[in-house]
Prior knowledge:
The protein is an alpha+beta fold. Helices cover 23% and strands 31% of the residues. It has twelve helices and 39 strands. A seven-stranded mixed sheet has the order 11-10-9-36-35-34-33. Helix 3 runs parallel beside helix 5, helix 6 packs across helix 10 and helix 8 crosses helix 9.
Amino acid sequence: MIPKLPLHSPRWRDLDGVTAEEVKALLEQMASAAVTGSGDEWRQAWTYMTGGLMDDGTVSDGAYAALPHLVEAAAALPPGQSVDFWADMGFIVTATDRPPVPTDLEAGFSAALRLAERAATHSLLAAKAPAQVCAHLVLSCVAFAGHRTGEALWRLLDPKESGLLLVCPGCGSDTEIPDFFVDPVHPTFEAPELLEPVPVRQAEHPWGEVAAALREEALGEGWEPFLRVARQVAETGIPTETPAQAVLCLVAAMVAVKGAPQWAGKEWARELMMLTGDFCCWDCERTWTIVDGLTENPDGARPQNPLTTTCAASGGSAATVEPAAADRTREAATRFRQDGNALLAGDGTSWGRISMFSDSEPGGPGGVDALTVVPRPGRPPLVAGGGGRGVVCLWGVADGRLVHEPLPGHPDRIRSMTALPLPDGGILLASGGDTGTIALWNPLTGQPVREPVGNWPGGVTGMCTATVPDGRTLLVTATPRGAVRLWDPLTGEPVGRLNPYGSPIQSIAAVPISTGHTLIAASDTGGRVHVWDPAVDDPWERGEAVQLSAHALKDADHRVATVAAVPAYHRTVLATGDNRGVVMLWDLVTGAPIGDGLPVSTGTAGLPVITGTTLPDGRTVLVTGSKSSHRLRIWEPETGAVRHIALEVALTCLATAGPELIVGHDRGVLKLPLA
């Protein structure tokens, strides 16, 4: 028998939320159902009572007096009839706002949890409940056992939702992983390890039958190691020391076995199993188990082994960070945030001022989708930008003011820009539009060089400038339909083609390999990288082009979305970025990766943008973020140091002018210091 507060005790008059009369009436209905094996009247009364026991996440004191009575009555019901009761009780005992148990009720409530664990586990084994109800039930059983993973019950999303919002157990920062929930045929990460030796609960526990119920084929091929972990956890009785992700293996495994229909249980169980992976906090660069990120300040949560870091990114994929890169990045990471026009460090001290470029006149660009820096011999450079209104703006880097009226020349959105230094010392500015328009400008006078021309088929998704050994400077344009063309900027005539396979291109860059000779690198929509030599007439000929190491790309699971030419290691190298936030550097002479890459970052995951510069003291920095995000990482490849900057605008593109970072965003352009 559970020690309970008598229903006639005066203590009931001091408790809010429920009354002794309501509890007594419900108990009579539950006792009748236990005798007859049927009857739903008690369910309706229980549903009504839960509103009194818990209101909007707040548990009343009355719950501690009422639940021991109700648990004893529910335990007498046929196991298949009490599923909803135990799931609801799990919500109550894991509520975010639950006051301490009153001293005189503590013994009865603790005994009720032990009985609830046994009865709910038998209910779990007997029931064929819908997959989501089954997940709530098994998490309730875990909560009754006293393990913290039961609190994840409040954080689980509806299966129809795809995103995941996590709280870093170390620094408390939010990390969002969009499109996280998937249904993989095979796991994308390894099964978690249990503590060695695995602790076993000393008192009798009801989980032995659960271990026997688990089947190797429950989740399908590739998931067997996770099921073995689930069985080990059940055999130990879920001691409080068990790692949270191992307990979640048990939860997911039981959903697969008992969820109905079987295909739905297996599908959602694999989605739940994805929560046993890891995520990298964008702010503190430490790696945590995802399930620990579902609950604020989970007891016992610890960062993963710092020597080998595995991080889940968008869609639940995983990547391994080399030890040296992980260590250096974590040690050197510092944070900054935009506060109006100030850039503040984590302790509130000022790093520098953020300058907003002047608003253009009506008809100007508004949001900026493309940027490029235009050098001027003997004078400070200009910044050119364009966006949705089809006009080009030119600003002075020093003061952020327009140097010309906005230049109309596109009937469509401007998607790409590049500056073309000519052999005679002149300079041209090229801009490419959404429907294939290419415009050329004299940036010093603000005058068009010629009428805009079309670059069919498709829009101009990328532009760069190539020099070839015969002394020519060529404009290179790329389209999403795979047309990569070489143009003579002086005549406006096409002079060659690249990309003989016709892969759809989403990013392109020119990387010099010697004086007067550049190679062209491009990423396609399949995540592949192509390298071409514009100096050869036949696009099928390699010339001096060397492809990136396929072995290195595969080992890093690096599906490239963006390429950029950046300074590093005393030369210009190719930087590649993927949708998980990874950045790698490559030597185009050998095709080999250079140094340690920048690891996965959920805070900058998404379609990447990359730029780089050399500071006055000789240090090289790379800046990366993702389109529409608010966060940047400033990375020094040679030291591994990383700075984080949180902006108040949604970035669209990046450029650098000496020690200044130029950020195109949804409302215009801003500048901030990198030194």
